[in-house]
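Extended Data, record Diaminopimelate epimerase
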Amino acid sequence: MQITFYKYQGAGNDFVLIDNRNNELKSLDKQTVATLCDRRFGIGGDGLMLLENEAGYDFKMVYYNADGNEGSMCGNGGRCIVAFAKHLGVITDTTKFLATDGTHHAKISAEGNWVSLQMIDVDTINRDGEAYVLNTGSPHYVKLTSDLDVKDVYNDGYAIRNNATYKANGINVNFVEPVRDEEGFFVRTFERGVENETYACGTGVTAVALAMAKHNEQFGSISTPIKVLGGNLNIRFNYDGEKFNNIFLEGPAELVFQGDISVDV
């Protein structure tokens, strides 16, 4: 069948989005999703999302990783689908939608290109040696490093994601370095499901901001700017020393192009 798709990006994290409110796509197999996300043989993207109807919500977000498997929560994907919902006229400036990790609230600018997305609360951060491990809707490994601009993120991230501890379920690997002479951090991420470095990772930069607050013993209302390969994001949250709440991931979300493509369903 012929479907209309939309390509969005949020700080370089790019996605294929499809309006499935009419439920025409009753199922998408792994190979179809992987082909649509392929940068040589398909549209190209770090993931694919379906926007669907859901009782009690403005919409439901169904997320697939680029490898074709249904994924856990994607922060930048969540921001992009909010922008998509505004483009479709489903929402105006605020929304409540359902994702795989539960209910999310978000606000979007009048221009439709800046989204503030509430993330799930976090009350557990574990250690793996010097690294921090936590779940912000997806599991993340956060490690401070140096000379991050020249780090071999693919090979170093691949090794951690596939070690004995994480190989079975996978984990997203974030390397972080304080920005010199500025507030905030520079982050590069190896993402499971993409199995490569991406230009940004929303749940990843959220995990970094929380882990660094714990690492630096910061408490109260915190706002943490993050630089990624694809641009700039901001995470604001409250931390009382035990629990992180009122967590918001903020940044750009923009329509790149739209088109039609044939898929086998």
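Summary. The two ends are 7 Å apart (CA to CA).
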